[in-house]
Automatic annotation (TrEMBL):
Keywords: Cytoplasm, NAD, Oxidoreductase, Phosphoprotein
Organism taxonomic ancestry: Bacteria, Bacillati, Actinomycetota, Actinomycetes, Micrococcales
Subcellular location: Cytoplasm
Limits of the 3-hydroxyacyl-CoA dehydrogenase NAD binding domain: 5-183
Domain named 3-hydroxyacyl-CoA dehydrogenase C-terminal: residues: 187-251
Annotated family: Belongs to the 3-hydroxyacyl-CoA dehydrogenase family.
Main location: cytoplasm
UniProt-listed Pfam families: 3HCDH (PF00725), 3HCDH_N (PF02737)
UniProt EC number: 1.1.1.45
Protein name: L-gulonate 3-dehydrogenase
Organism: Citricoccus nitrophenolicus
Record has ATP-binding as a keyword: no
Oligomer status and interactors: Homodimer.
Pathway of action: Lipid metabolism; butanoate metabolism
Gene3D superfamilies cross-referenced by the UniProt entry: N-(1-d-carboxylethyl)-l-norvaline Dehydrogenase, domain 2, NAD(P)-binding Rossmann-like Domain
Amino acid sequence: MSERKIAVVGGGSIGVAFALVFARAGHPVAVFEPESGRREAITAELTAKLQSLAEAGLLEGTGEAIAARVRLEADLPAAVAGAALVQECVPERLEIKQQLFAELGEATGPDTVLASSSSAIPASQTGEGLAAADRILVAHPGNPPFLLPVIELAPSPVTRPAVVAAAHRIYAGAGMSPVTVAREVEGFLFNRLQGAVLREAYALVRDGVATVEDIDTVMRDGLGRRWAFMGPFETADLNTRGGIASHAQKMGPAYERMGVERGQHDPWTPGLVTEVERQRRALLPLEQWEDRVAWRDRQLQRVAAALRPDDA
Ligand SMILES: NC(=O)C1=CN([C@@H]2O[C@H](COP(=O)(O)OP(=O)(O)OC[C@H]3O[C@@H](n4cnc5c(N)ncnc54)[C@H](O)[C@@H]3O)[C@@H](O)[C@H]2O)C=CC1
Ligand SMILES: O=C(O)[C@@H](O)C(=O)[C@H](O)[C@@H](O)CO
């Protein structure tokens, strides 16, 4: 549990979710939301989410005690005063974020981490020209962050490493799974991966290959089940005897042709496959492959049981 204050700026979908994440971890949370209708809805939304988590057995402590740590502040300076970290959760519009971060730079001390929830806008754009740019980074969650623990930390080239480390500690301490994006790109990791799937899904509908419903069924009843507990590399590694190098040999040419069809020629070159194989073998020696495949199937059984309809 941490007593360090967190400020959430923007009380919409993600702002309320982040307020829950940090309050659940014991932080006092200040929320600044300028729109009165939204502000009036925040407490009830927070309470409802906490109650649902408690009913699912996913809450340590009482919802009331957690909600009591969240306070709505009437103005921005009061909300961010003394905060260890500010989580920006305003609309995905560069001009709004740039204006806000200019205000945040003025209203906070040199040790306050300024984190943007942005889905795709790099910190180098959000903090462009600001003295506080060296303490701005993107900390992008999946929605909702109180149930999807991954958070991708995307610093700009001028973000101080100590700021990234401080952010990592705070998010990890709040039960999240921080990953650090090594080089600044639009959309970071989560939305680049999600975008690759969505681009193909839209193209398949455009070309009359499948319906929206059938494509979602392939994801829900297929890929999504495996991806609920494995990433794409571990999935491929366990799909093929011999591991991911064997998978690349068997499937690489077909995936390359599919990419060319979409105007994207990114072949899995021998050097790239060697590097991916090196990283995978460091995580799972081939002699453990059979055991890991058995683990995979046990996990899929758990997922199947969890998703079984209540009236089954
Ligand atoms: N909704 C989602 O699935 C996810 C959203 N994000 C990102 O999080 C950010 C917020 O997204 P949402 O919560 O969905 O948006 P939202 O529209 O639900 O909430 C934004 C809130 O910010 C308030 N706001 C507007 N200008 C403000 C200002 N200057 N200062 C303080 N508050 C202000 C609005 O009144 C509104 O309540 C966006 O950058 C979005 O891309 C990131 C991950 C997932
Ligand atoms: O999909 C998510 O949860 C996030 O990666 C997002 O950024 C949002 O979906 C975003 O694309 C829509 O606000």
